[in-house]
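ugh ok fine here u go
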Amino acid sequence: MVHDRSTRTDDEVLAATDIEALLRHGLSRDTFRTALFGDGAIAAAVTLDRLGVLPRSVTYVAKIVRAGGLAYAAGLPEPLPSREASAFLRDWLETAAQVAEAPGDETRAAHWLETVAEIVAMRRTSRDATAGPGPA
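structure:
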């Protein structure tokens, strides 16, 4: 076994994941679905969490996808509170909209966004639990 001795953290490795590629293949192919909902969801959560996105914002976008579809959600001027986070999410939504063909693909994309939101929430909860009390 070869060990990576680089100084990159797990978060940095995950943040470098090609989420668009995972969406392109994971929405339409069963064989890539585990990667999309595993590494892809974690990588998206790391990216959005680093930008300070709240889980409820991502959950809200998932509801928009369910109600109006991927193309509609991708066309929103600012789907998340910050421009940088919105740019990432818009790229992901546009990619998903381009490949969504089967009726279940859009539902699957909304479920993926909900998974991303749950992971962001878990990261925040874990961080808060290990931070300890603030200054007295």
